[in-house]
Amino acid sequence: MTENKHTVKILLTEEQINKRIMEVSLQIQRDFSDKDPLIISILKGSFIFSSDLIRHLNPLYKIDFIVAKSYIGTESSGSVKIIADVKSEIKGKDILFIDDIADTGVTTSFLRKEFLSRGAKSVKVCVLLNKQSRRFVDTIVEYSCFDIPNEFVVGYGLDYNDLYRGLPYVGILSQEK
Ligand code: IMP
Ligand code: MG
């Protein structure tokens, strides 16, 4: 059993998350009603959010995955690496990226540019959490479920060094003294 050296204070409950996902999914369905988008879930952080969100979307939407990494511990490394790429054709597609959180904005702005240069027709970004105060890249996030303060959060897919992803809520992580 891994020793737990942290405390986690609940910021968003399962109920709040589920309710908001429902609202945002309606917004997405409206905006994409005349399109055939390719949804790309940015792993690992968005795997729980993506699976909950897509169950409220049109089941004919195709889904692919990309593994991108920009974080080491609680500090942004400031650069993005594609660890595993999508398999789908990108040319001419309307892409909807799903990510766990827009923090500095480095990841989503990098992927937006990268996929437009691969020939995507359009790129939109949907995040569960938005830490607007941390943004140092001029990034647009078209869909965001919650604006949160500048705190390091875990749970519902978000991790601290790969721990705490399985918590059913989003909580603020603090070091036990
Ligand atoms: P970016 O700084 O916007 O590029 O965010 C990159 C990634 O950092 C996100 O997709 C998360 O995986 C991770 N990240 C940013 N803030 C947090 C946090 O508060 N908790 C856990 N992961 C985070
Ligand atoms: Mg992460």
What's the layout of helices and strands?
Blueprint (H helix, E strand, L loop, with lengths): L5 E7 L1 H18 L6 E6 L3 H8 L7 E11 L2 E10 L9 E9 L3 H12 L4 E9 L12 E5 L5 E2 L15 E6 L2
Parallel strand pairs: 2-3, 2-5, 5-6, 6-7
Antiparallel strand pairs: 1-9, 3-4, 8-9
Bound molecules: inosinic acid and magnesium ion.
CATH-scheme architecture: 3-Layer(aba) Sandwich
Structural class of the helices, strands and pairings?
Answer: alpha/beta
Strand content: 35-45%
What is the multimeric organization of the chains shown? single chain
The major β-sheet equals: 6 strands, mixed
CA-atom Rg in angstroms: 16 Å
Could you explain how this protein is built, in words?
With 177 residues, the protein is of the alpha/beta class. The protein has one domain: 3-Layer(aba) Sandwich (Rossmann fold). Helices cover 21% and strands 37% of the residues. It has three helices and nine strands. The protein has a six-stranded mixed β-sheet with strand order 4-3-2-5-6-7. The protein has a three-stranded antiparallel β-sheet with strand order 1-9-8. The longest helix is centred in the first third of the chain and has 18 residues. The radius of gyration is 16 Å and the shape is globular. The model has no long low-confidence stretch (mean pLDDT 92). The site of magnesium ion has 3 residues, from loops.
